[in-house]
Write a structure and sequence with these properties.
- This protein is α/β, with parallel strands linked by helices.
- About 35% of the residues lie in helices and about 25% in strands.
- The chain is built from ten helices and 14 strands.
- Strands 8-9-10-7-11-12-13-14 form an eight-stranded mixed sheet, covered by helices on one side. A six-stranded parallel sheet has the order 3-2-1-4-5-6, with helices on both faces.
- Strand 13 and strand 14 form a beta hairpin.
- The longest helix is centred in the last third of the chain and has 18 residues.
Length: about 350
């Protein structure tokens, strides 16, 4: 007997919302029933494009729609606290894009709200749900390359982006770190947990956001991670994991890989590739499928993207911003952006 479709609401109508919705409509057990924007004409156009029956010109109407099982929040991250919070307050389950929020304080507020309501909440860290990344993590956890000594990952775009672009706008949480750097940091913490120490340097724009940032994360056991992000130079977007007995190299596009190469001491390199049945490498279907699996199982968070892990990444991003001197509107100059890290 087929299970009832999971009914989705889409909050925001930008590029990532369109990409996610396009993948959702291809899933046989997903149904997109409503979309909301701050402008009715934008919601109407999005609804017409994807055949969505209900279009709302404000977020609150979507949040109050009891015919929705889960809301996908796809606004810029500066609005995640408000948008996801509105939905959680109304008792909705939420999948929220990354960076999860502007800072760890906002993230903690959303997690506390979800737990108080008994609602499902997950960061849309699609990398963690990618089958190739899951295979890589399983190999590392099994000790195939020994003890992890170093992780490297980078994500940079060539630009140039004008000052008016959202990536340069402090009010929208602009800069390389929250938009791109969240991937290298999340990759490192997927494998090593929360670091015990963070150091960082950045080049800042005239608006006060980071144009490029490099950070060194370290762990009490001796492991280190080198992460870099940029909106002024296109990088290889590659990653590597070096252990005491070998190395794993992930080529360009490490956050949605279709292959990786395992190098073990004294052995020929081994290439692991994606299963064609898993769909295109840029598919967002895996995170959507994980949300629906968790909802049907009655879970309030995903073991693939646990809330403690999301909070840990936000603390690291805060610590990096503290080191490089980036503050966003609404954050006091003396606000503590370097909460005590909780090493794994």
């Amino acid at each position: 007997m087929a299970e009832r479709s999971v009914r989705w609401g889409i909050l925001a109508t930008g590029g990532i919302a369109a990409a996610f919705t396009a993948d959702l409509v291809d899933l046989p057990d997903a149904e997109v029933v409503a979309v909301a924007s701050r402008r009715q004409d934008s919601a109407d156009a999005f609804a017409e494009r994807f055949g969505i029956p209900r279009a709302y010109g404000d977020w609150a109407a979507l949040a109050q729609d009891d015919d929705i099982d889960v809301v996908y929040v796809a606004t810029p991250h500066s609005a995640h606290r408000a948008a996801a919070g509105l939905c959680l307050e109304a008792g909705r389950n939420v999948l929220c894009e990354k960076a999860f929020t502007l800072n760890a304080r906002e993230a903690e507020e959303l997690v506390a709200l979800a737990k108080a309501r008994g609602s499902f909440l997950m960061e849309a860290m699609w990398m963690y749900c990618n089958p190739v990344v899951r295979r890589l993590k399983a190999l590392v956890d099994d000790g195939v390359i020994g003890e992890v000594r170093h992780v490297q990952a980078d994500f940079g775009l060539a630009g140039p982006f004008p000052p008016s672009h959202r990536l340069r706008d402090p009010a929208q949480g602009g800069g390389a770190l929250l938009d791109l750097g969240v991937y290298p940091v999340s990759f490192a913490q997927l494998l090593l947990g929360e670091p015990s120490d963070v150091s960082a340097r950045a080049t800042l724009s005239a608006e006060g956001v980071d144009l490029q940032t490099g950070a060194l994360l370290s762990w009490d056991g001796g492991a280190m991670a080198s992460v870099h992000c940029s909106i002024v130079g296109g990088t290889a977007t590659s990653a590597s994991v070096t252990g005491s007995q070998g190395r794993i190299d992930v080529p360009s596009g490490f956050f949605f890989p279709d292959r990786f190469v395992l190098h073990r001491d004294g052995r020929d390199p081994e290439e692991f590739t994606a299963d064609p049945a898993d769909g295109p490498r840029n598919s967002l279907r895996h995170e959507a499928a994980e949300v629906m699996r968790a909802l049907r199982a009655g879970e309030t968070e995903s073991p693939l993207v646990p809330l403690d892990g999301t909070l840990a990444v936000m603390r690291t991003l805060d610590a990096i911003r503290d080191r490089v001197g980036v503050r966003y509107p609404g954050e006091a100059p003396d606000e503590d952006l370097a909460p005590e890290l909780t090493p794994a």
